[in-house]
Amino acid sequence: MKKLIIATAIVAASTASVAMANDSKFGFDKPFLAVTIGTNTNDVNGIDSTVAEYEALKTSEPSTYGSISSVKHTVDTGIQAGANLVTITPKVALGAEIDASYGFRGQEVKVNVTADNSINKLHYTRYAIDPMAYIAFSPINKLSLKAKAGYGYQHLESTQTGTSDYNAHKWEPVLAAEAGYSVINNVSIIAGDRYTFGPKADATTFKKPVPRENVVYVGVKYTF
């Protein structure tokens, strides 16, 4: 962590020096608001492990456990708000934003036990508030690329059939990459990938702090 802080400080100092040398413009510029929707690509619920456990029981106790089926679903919605703070060149800018997201992950495993069907439901909700700094680059007209880094607050609420609810919250590092394309005046279509650091979720007890996430999203951004 110390190396990361030192590296960040060096990059920030170098960027500031370049900005001042190039007579860059400082100030609140091109504020924006965006809405996004996406999906989490990590098996953070331990869903695959849970199905494997039932498959093992079916093998060892075929007279008790019959057919097994599972359904997974994951949705992540978000809002972004921010603005450029330093315009280094007409194509390069530094800025800051706040990303707020709400995600729902779930699974239903349906297992035929003796003559009865039982459903093991596992789901959790998660919301995050991520203050982020970014560098934006526009290589060609209408196209923009953005690299973001921040340290966000993550809150998780998890429930599973037959177990007690589990809540956790923690501050974690966040990295993101995003591309946008302007379709009409002030309106852009964006697509990105946001990675939140953290441990892998425990497949049975879910007693680890807020697990890592990798959310792929698309959205619409309006620049004021």
Account of the protein in words:
The structure is a single chain. Helix content is 15%, strand content 64%. The chain is α+β, with helices and mostly antiparallel strands and 224 residues long. The protein has one domain: Porin (Beta Barrel), CATH 2.40.160.20. An eight-stranded antiparallel barrel has the order 1-2-3-4-5-6-7-8. Strand 6 (166-184) and strand 7 form a beta hairpin. Mean pLDDT is 78; it is low at 1-13.
Distance separating the two termini: 37 Å
Radius of gyration: 22 Å
What composes the largest sheet? 8 strands, antiparallel, barrel
Would you tell me the structural class of the helices and strands? alpha+beta
Please state the overall shape, judged from the principal axes of the Cα atoms.
Answer: elongated
Walk across the major sheet and give the strand order.
Answer: 1-2-3-4-5-6-7-8
- The total strand number stands at 8
| Count of runs of 4 or more consecutive helical residues | 2
Percent range of helical residues = 10-25%
Strand portion: over 45%
CATH class: Mainly Beta
What's the architecture in CATH terms?
Beta Barrel
pLDDT averaged over residues:
78
Low-confidence stretches: 1-13
- Helix/strand order: HEHEEEEEEE
Looking at the structure, the CATH topology is: Porin
Please write out the topology.
Blueprint: H1 2-21, E1 25-40, H2 47-60, E2 65-89, E3 92-113, E4 116-137, E5 143-160, E6 166-184, E7 187-196, E8 213-223
